[in-house]
Amino acid sequence: MTQPRWLFGSSCLTILTDRTTTRGQYDLIETYFLADKRSPLHHHTRYSEHLYVLEGEFPVWAGENKVVLNAGDRFLIPVGIPHTVGVLNNCPADGLVLSPSSSPCKTPLNFFN
């Protein structure tokens, strides 16, 4: 769908499908995190985010909760909850992010300027 794009030097995002192919229903993004990296703390004002781990281990901090996801695990981050996702060991990790279609996200930078 799109060329992979590096975000904040920590993860590579590839849009697998978006509103143009799902009739405005959802976006599906593959997220590859480098070892010992994580996303900046951020929140989404208009949508929740559903994470699914393909390979590796993703620690997720969402509000007051911290969970460690492994391959096959999933986690829902509700709308408005500050969160960060990353990898805290020396092994990269790969996962999928499913969210309602192309809503803006509150981060220090726009994901796809």
TrEMBL record:
Q: Where is the Cupin type-2 domain?
A: 38-87
The UniProt entry, under Pfam families, shows: Cupin_2
Q: What is the superkingdom listed in this entry's lineage?
A: Bacteria
Q: Which PANTHER family match?
A: PUTATIVE (AFU_ORTHOLOGUE AFUA_8G07350)-RELATED
Q: What is this protein called?
A: Cupin type-2 domain-containing protein
What is the organism field in this record?
Nostoc minutum NIES-26
- Lineage of source species: Bacteria, Bacillati, Cyanobacteriota, Cyanophyceae, Nostocales
